[in-house]
Structures are given as C-alpha cells and as structure tokens.
Amino acid sequence: MSAPSSTDSVTEAVTEAGTNAPDRGHDHGENEGHGHVEVDGVELSAELVEGASVASRDVAEYALWLGDDSLVLAQHLGWWISRAPELEEDIALGNIALDLIGHARSLLHYAGAESNRTEDDLAYWRTEPEFRSAHLFEQPNGDFAHTIARQFIAANYLFELYSRLAGSADATLAAIAAKAVKEVDYHRDHAAQWVLRLALGTEESRSRMICGLGDLWPFLDELFVDEPVIDRLEGVAVRPSSLRGPVEEAMAPVLREAELDEPRGFICSGGGRRGDHSENLGPLLAEMQVLARAHPGASW
Amino acid sequence: MTTPPVPYDIAPSAATVLSPEEQQFNDLIAADSRIEPRDWMPEAYRKTLVRQISQHAHSEIIGMQPEGNWITRAPSLKRKAILLAKVQDEAGHGLYLYSAAQTLGITRDEMTDALIAGKARYSSIFNYPSPTWADMGSIGWLVDGAAICNQVPLCRASYGPYGRAMVRICKEESFHQRQGFEILLELMNGTDEQKAMAQDSVNRWYWPALQMFGPPDDDSPNSAQSMKWNIKRFSNDELRQRFVGMLVPQAEVLGVTLPDPDLRWNEEKGAYDMGEIDWTEFHEVLQGRGPANARRLQRRRDAHENGRWVREAAAAYARKQAAKLTETAVA
Prior knowledge:
The complex is a heterodimer of chains A (300) and B (331). Chain A is built from 13 helices and no strands.
C-alpha cells in the first residue's frame, strides 16, 4: 500500500502541459516542436541529418531507392494499426512502420537536396514512374502471414544492406545506415519469431505461412539486380548483387528451424529501380497523396 | 457491466460491526491511501472499478479508429509519423488499462468478448466519424483535452494499479493534446480552405467533447459513491467547467470560434456561462444510435476474428516449445 504522493509532480506537469498548449503551440518549428516527445521511435529532429553535404545526382538516385522502399513499406504497415491480431501487434507493427518512416524521411531529405526538393515534395508530388521502390515493398498486406513473409524478406535484406552501408564513403548515407541498422535488427527478430510461430503453430497457420512465403518469394530476386548507376557509386552504394549471399544465408537458419523449404517457382522481373512498378503502387500512392495534392502549396 | 453499483455506505453505522478487513479498507480510504490488488475490498468497489477501467481501456482501443483513418493519408511525412505514434500510444494505453483491470479478477478475453458482443461501453465520442484531416486536430485538442481534465485527477484514484496506469497515460495525453492544437494552428494559419476545414471540425467536435464529462451532477447516478471511494475527485460539472475555462483562451490563439453563442465570462461566478448541452443526442449515441457505432464495433470484431488463427498459432507454438523444454529436461 503506497501513498499517492509520488504522482503529484507528474500530475502538475501534465496539468501544466495541458493548459499551456497555446504558448507552446506558437513555437511549432520543425526542430523544436517534438524534440522532447516521449514516444518510442519518434525522435523526429534527430532523424534528419542536418548540415549534411548535398548528394550528387547519382547518390540522390540511390537514396531514392532506399527511401522509397521504406516509405512504401511503412505506408502498408500503417494500415494494420487497429486491425492487428492482438494489441501487442498493433504496437509492434506500428513501431516498425515508425522506424521505416524515419528512415524514409532521412533518405528523402538527403535525396531531395540535390534538386532543391523537400522530403514531402518527393513523397507527395512525384508520379508513379518517378518512384524507385522495388516490387517486394509494394506487395499488399494480404493476411498476417503475407505481411510477415514480406517483413521477413525485407528486414533481412535491409539489415544486410545497412550493415554494409554504415561503412559507406558517403558520410550522410553512412550515418543514416548506422542508425537504421539497429532498428531493422529488431524488425528482423520480430519477423523471424512470427515465421516460427506461424510455421510451427497450427495446421492452418502453417499452410498460410507457406502460402505467404510462396507469394512473396518471387520478389526477392529484384533486390539483387545491379543497375548502371551502381557502377558509378563504387564505395558509396552497396552493390545489390553482393547482398544475395548474405541475405539468403541470414534467412536459411530460420527457414530450417521453421521446417520450411525455400519456395521455388516464379521470379518477378521487377524494374522498380527504373520506375517500372507493380500494379499495387498506383493505388497506394493515390491514397497517400490525395490530401496533399488537393491543396497545392499548403503547409500542414 | 453497465449496471450501476449497489450503493454502499462506507461510514460504519451503530448497528453494523465491521470485520477487520472492512475496517482496514475504510481506514485506507479515510487516510487517502491506496488499495492494492491483494487488499480486501467491497464487491461493489471492485465492480465499479472493473466497469470504469475496462470502459476506459475499450475507449482507448476504439479511439484508435477515427485517427487510424488518416494515417495512410496524412498530408506530410512528419504528420504521418506523429499520428502513427499517437495511435500506437493509444494501443499502449489500452494494454496498461486492461492489465490494471485484470488485477481485479477479470481476463482480457472476457473484456474483449464483452466489447465485441456490444455489452460493454466505451466513450461515446468515438462513435463520431472523422471525415477531414482537421478532425485529427480537433480530436487531439478537444477530445484528448477533455480526457486530460478527466484523467489527471484519476492519477490519485484510490486503486493503486489504476492510479499508476493513469500517471503514465496522462504524460502521453498531454503530448497528444499539443499535437492536435498544432494541427489546428497550422490550418488556421493556412489557406481559406484549410481555415474552413478547421472551423467546421471544431463545430462538429465541441459539443460531443463537452459531453465526455458525463451527465450533469444532478443526473449522475454513480458519481457520489465513486467520490466517497476516492476514485473520482471532482464532479462532472466541475470538470466540464474547468475544461471550458482552459479552451477559451486557446481558441482565441487559434482564431477559431467555439460554437456556443451563449458562452460568456461571468464575472460574479468567476467562470464561463455556457449554453444548454443537447443531452438527447448524448443518450441517443449512448443507446447505439450515433453515426458510427456499428462501424466501430465491426472493425474491432473483424480484427479479432481475423486474428484468431494467429493467436491460436502463437499459443500452440508456445505449448510445443514448453513441451520440448520439458522433454529435454527429462532426457
């Protein structure tokens, strides 16, 4: 039995924050506004690498690849909030989406400097062929097993990618990657746990996991395709083809423990890095961009 | 769950001989101390708390929907991130509150089943739709603002787990209110269309937000007993008055008009006079005749039903792992 005194200071602080909103509201600058926010995974100002050098056109192009992958995946995952199988997953998938939006913001911010565009100019005002996301990230949520299969491949790919990009000769990319790799390490673990639970849980969950993995596997190959721009970014970008071995090796033990065979079947020819997208991207962008585009020039 | 608690007088009458536990409970309440899960408590106290805490938890969970509606369409990446974080906080609040209720001997499954069956209540405010982006501002400013007024005193509620959950929740709610205020401020500093969007939204949410404090004091059957038990600290009308006093200067900063022509400062009273609240609307929504009652419950039920096979898989996997561990230990 404890006296309620310990709550008093908090109560006062809360009352103060609640009633003083207008004073704080005046000062709603990008950097100040949410620096103190106590929400897991949102350190908005820290995500933006300020004062960084301007990326060259090629580096900006590469940053778009990575930024668009994260943005599109986050956009899908955001749908799950209030629809997940249990509350803990609403929170977990929300956390992952938040991390990914953070990565996307940093990367798009960096990519945009070259053409004097903001992260929002890039997210909301580019057309579909101007996006550079790979098809894997564009695939719909499907059922929970499909979402987990997409997460499993994506997180393993991103982890191997960012681990290496942290050593990039480009200091901004290296800094973004060094922060992101810790977060996608958690995403990787989250996905692996669910692959095991679903594959080894019930008969139904196993058949759904096998189906989900089979439906997403065709989009793995595109992640390892080198485009001409990569040749001009030696030491800056991570060569996609160099990631095939590490990513497959990282997934193999989980698949083995889950008693799942690597799916063999279709391989999607991809093309996202050149602006050739799956049919899913159009509707996704239409939804994401609808409000911003209804109010050109407005600020939010 | 919705039956009012049996009136229970904590003051010992001459005719009653109190058991030692009962005496201890009364002493703790009289000393404004905390009751903890293992302490004896009157059945009506337990029931009142189960009802209140579970309703509060359900409100957090259903409350994710009107805001979740805009996550995919948020007009900037910064707003998207903040909104996502906010809705995620609400899931977290629901979790703490379900846990607090569980210490009173009810399970999360029982509470979820009652919600999905339409037998449990949640805050009526979430039965209103969120058709525009400005509603993300109004929900934060007005709905979370009202929630803070209600909840800050609950940090001192006599039941320990509830009070402690509320401390954590209130910290986050004040951030929620501020982000709502900022959304509206940005709109009110924006284009004519944005300003109109903000004003329209405030018009829609203002009165339902005032109703969040519950019926007037002379028509609030459960309030008196909850105040005797130190669960509730201020009356519905007191809290409503405090809320309006807080809103008026903030509305001036925003440049929005609060949609109450009778709202004016009363020097004598030292508080605002306000217009009549439409309690018919309140009772209609409460009885299930609001704009979005069916949709809110349907979404919750769909999520629960569609997730059943996932929860079953997780449980089966955990059982198999445990069995494996036992086998290894035996071998």
